[in-house]
Amino acid sequence: MIKLSLLMRPIKIGANVWIGLNAVILDGVAIGDRSGIGAGSAVTKDTPPDCVAVGHPCRVIKTITHSEMPADEELDEMWADLHDFYYQQNTQLNNL
Predict the structure, then answer these.
(1) Same domain for 47 and 83?
(2) What is the C-alpha separation between 15 and 51, in angstroms, rounded?
(3) Residue 51: beta bridge partners?
(4) If exposure means fewest CB atoms within 10 Å of the residue's CB, which of 3, 46, 52, 61 is most exposed?
(5) Is a pLDDT exceeding 90 seen at residue 43?
(6) Is 32 left (phi over 0), alpha (psi -120 to 50) or beta?
(7) Residue by residue, what is the 3-state secondary structure of the chain?
(8) Domain range for residue 40?
(9) Residues 55/39, Cβ–Cβ less than 8 Å
């Protein structure tokens, strides 16, 4: 009998990573900080930080320079705003 826990490796997802809808990430893969994975992509190997990767299998199509990206504090603020927006929308729907 084979123990599945011995065959599966954890997935490592860095900080401020965006993963598109229906993306598949194989076990043992690491996605670098501040990266984006395109919708429907199949991530079969590690992706570096600060990149955009898409495809089946996933390939890096763009490296993002630090001048192109917002600061971590700005990203945290955007996530908080998005969370507040969805919370308000759900509250309004529940009150109908």
Answers:
(1) no
(2) 13
(3) 63
(4) 3
(5) yes
(6) beta
(7) CCCHHHHCCCCEECCCCEECCCCEECCCCEECCCCEECCCCEECCCECCCEEEEECCEEEEEECCHHHCCCHHHHHHHHHHHHHHHHHHHHHHHCC
(8) 1-64
(9) no
pLDDT single digits (tens) 10-37: 999 999 999 999 999 999 999 999 999 9
Bridge partner residues of 63 (DSSP)? 51
CB of 32 closer than 8 Å to CB of 16: no
Q: What are phi and psi of 83, to 5 degrees?
A: -60, -45
Are 58 and 21 members of one domain? yes
- Could you tell me if 51 and 62 are in contact, meaning their C-beta atoms sit under 8 angstroms apart? yes
